[in-house]
Amino acid sequence: MSKGLPKRSEDYSLWYNELVKRADLAENSPVRGCMVIKPYGFSIWEKMQAELDRMFKETGHSNAYFPLFIPKSYLSKEADHVEGFAKECAVVTHYRLMNDPNGKGVVVDPDAKLEEELIVRPTSETVIWSTYKNWVQSYRDLPLLINQWANVVRWEMRTRLFLRTAEFLWQEGHTAHATKQEAIDESIQMMNVYAHFAEEFMAMPVVRGVKSASERFAGALETYCIEAMMQDGKALQAGTSHFLGQNFAKAFEVKFTSKEGVQEYVWGTSWGVSTRLIGALIMAHSDDQGLVLPPKLAPIQVVIVPIYKGEEQLQVIAEKVTELTKGLRKKGISVKFDDRDTYKPGFKFAEWELKGVPVRLAIGPKDLENNSVEIARRDTGEKELFSLENSLEDKIEALLDDIQASIYKKAYDFRAEKTTVVNSYEEFKQILDEKAGFVSAHWDGTAETEEKIKEETKATIRCIPLDQQAEEGNCIYSGQPSKGRVLFARAY
Q1: CATH fold of 300-399
Q2: Which neighbouring-strand residues pair with 27?
Q3: Of 101, 115, 144, 240, which one has the greatest count of Cβ atoms within 10 A?
């Protein structure tokens, strides 16, 4: 199955694209820039959804749903917001088709022009804040903690499966608060929720930080983010949480009566992650043989492959596997018995290796005689014979935990090796070209310097780390005073 899969070291981009397709995660659709997420890929998204949704609800949020279409006038109400998204918007201008008078299929009916164009949502702040106006009257209505799972459209010109597509799936939280501090606390809380999910479930270490003014979400006063490192040394923004201040509340007149009887504007946040996380999962851990999935997000945690000759042997093995499977499932472990008779064991081994199943069990007639099973782990390729005199459930449960921790440590060590502190622009450029990764450097805080560095090196400020220490220095580019280091990287 993995034969002919390009090597990461030779062509990382081609390796990624081929792996997504061969592992049955997704494929390009007939609609330019859009993708079909296949069942195996969607099952990973469902696992992500389930864990994130649980975390959102544990922090007091409820799910709702808002329209796909947004009146064009809504986007005009918050100036920074419309400027940030105008170039990516898909616009609906007509509401009906008609048969072509020349007999060439269907055409847009010119008499069916909309009075006001509709935007296919690139994000939902405007339509949601227009709704919140009706939901909020008093301080008793606050905080308003809403999330929606949805699809959005951003008309990207250069697309790549999962990482950047014209349509993608995501969740977007939108909250309203009585005070500025409550909204800031919410923004930071949700950034930390994302960081916890990335590290504990995706086994992907992240840097928590804030974006520079130039990199903020359009319409936000502050953007908190988590940044991850991929195996090619490029950074990937894995999640963002925005403190919106009162910008959208003022644009849509969302006011409340305070305890003191005073009319005030609410304070807002928004936050989201998308199917881009599947791309991050692939690029953070996988190898030249295929996917490497952390057990907590693997659709199948254990696959059992029988090795047999003839229907009689298969039947005996299947009876034993039924017994083993029951015990594993009682522990909450997802198991698949691959008893397909159209493929040989070697093909199955390669297929499940390509699909990143964390643990593979192989069992044949000799194993039945010896009351044992062969266990192979995907992340290291290590194999062992395990006696079924012992508890297989306990063994697999511990092994899955070890694989999860091992995958995280490998990614953490890689990021540490790919993080470099520099003090000059020449060293900065050299590291970017020869080593890549995160580059920690002093910056003078100006948008002009940030833009010049981006133009000359294609590196952007990924974030100002929240845990950075105050450190006086001089900007690597301008030589002007700097109050601390920021993280630069070339990024997806």
Answers
A1: Rossmann fold (3.40.50)
A2: 36
A3: 240
